[in-house]
Amino acid sequence: MPLTLEQRRMLRAYESTQNLTAHQAEWKRAAMDLGANVQRCGLLQALAFLKRDAAPVAPGLLALLRDHLVDRSILPDGCDQDLAEAVARIQHVRQYMLATRETLAFSLWLKRSAQALLD
Hints:
The chain is mainly alpha-helical. It has one domain (5-117): AF1862-like domain (Peroxidase, domain 1). The chain is built from six helices and no strands. Helix 1 (5-18) packs across helix 6 (93-117) and helix 2 runs antiparallel to helix 6. The longest helix has 25 residues, at 93-117. The chain starts with a helix and ends with a helix.
């Protein structure tokens, strides 16, 4: 039986959190803040904030989000550029809104997994 979209989000978030060996406190903080930052500032601004963050987990979190948006076909296949730059290149408002909604939905699972798995 194939996984639903919600199950795929959950599985990716839990696997990425469960595989952490270092910087767990920073990952938890970034995961807890991501959704609120997207709602408060907008997707692109939240990504720019995360990109300039000095935390060692920021590049990994951005890569995880980029891979998720590529898997959801929101960003083009083979997108290996910076996530903030890729989102800035989105030309249609509907595509940007879809990227925002998908990031918010995925960030909820990142937050839950950080709360459940990290001290």
